[in-house]
Amino acid sequence: MPRPPGLTAPTDEAYWARIAAQYDVAPDFLNLENGYFGVQARPVFEAFQRYEREVNAQNAWFLRRRWPALLAEVIERLAAFSGVDPDELHITRNLMESLNIVLQGYPFAPGDEVVCATHDYDDVRDVLDMVAARRGVRVVCVEAPLDPRSDDEILAVYEAAYTPRTRAVLVTHMVHRTGQIMPVARIAAQARTRGIDTIVDAAHSFAQLDYRLPDLQADFVGANLHKWLGAPLGVGLLYVRRDRIRDIAPLFGDTTHAADDIRKFAKVGTIPPAPVLAVSDALDFHASIGSANKEARLRWLKDYWVERARGIAGLELLTPTDSRRSCAIAAFRLAHLPAAEVARRLVDEHGIFTVTREVGGRAGVRVTPHLYIRPAQLDRLVAALAAIAA
Fold first, then answer.
1. Side-chain-facing half-sphere of 339: CA atoms under 13 Å
2. DSSP structure class, residue 267
3. Residue 116 and residue 158 in contact, taking contact as beta carbons nearer than 8 Å
4. Protein fold of 48-285
5. Using CA atoms, how far apart are residues 264 and 164, in angstroms rounded to an integer?
6. 9-18, 221-230, 245-254: lowest mean pLDDT where?
């Protein structure tokens, strides 16, 4: 892996222009909806295409003779980046597969409780509801503050939901609706004192924030590699603490691996190797920028437009006031217009693509810049919002 670079100022536009030039994006609209999945940088995309050609040309020879060693190498690289051992990591197809493995395989008993939050990802909450219905588990959903004054305020909300029957707590590290960063390590430490497991949704935080998986102090973590790491679509990550692998039943049938072998989760049939192989190239590109530099630039881009939009009449920001409590993602509402109408006018009248997400019972507009976004493009957003709000 390339040597990590030194610190680069998030305002060094000459440097960030060189990074932006590594992305080939459609010129006919301004994409501020980069939270869905990440654009691959050119070196990653070219490597991905090269792997596809190799697999197609070599056919079964590739999968039977080359693939096992190549997969092990990618897992080694990913484990080194994540700060965990390779035998605690499994590469999945996405976050949802990762958390389905954990939640559906978890040893819940009838009457057990699991705590989640209203801001958690809708599809993950659907899995919880399905598990609850099938296995007699009670789901307790808390309402976390949108603009907390301190981490203690958040911890108190979770603490109040725990009972002697609570077995696990689901925590989203970075809320996809508003960008709020949750104090996962403190929530996990609090839960552990009560014998409660912590399951983390790190879909947006992985490779957007500068941290390693042990920093979260969680028992189980799921993430997407096709979001902020910039790997191709169709790659995710599952981390299970080594001493907990035995406790999770495989989602897909496997009688070939021991109960404490993380490979027992991998029997999903034939998978496309090229997206997985390109994870190494995505790690290389990420390392050439540096985790701390990337986080700082993404936060600066968010702050750039948010600070300029604060004075727009009727605009309500839904992301925490403290800049440190979010990174690239922010959300807002306009008092006199439905969020769907704002998003429609942004794209139809101004060529700016965003997305709506439900926040606290009402829809808001989510704005997510990427490393290829320049300040002048965010000026376009602010001007468009002022025009729509007028």
1. 20
2. -
3. no
4. Aspartate Aminotransferase; domain 2 (3.40.640)
5. 31
6. 245-254
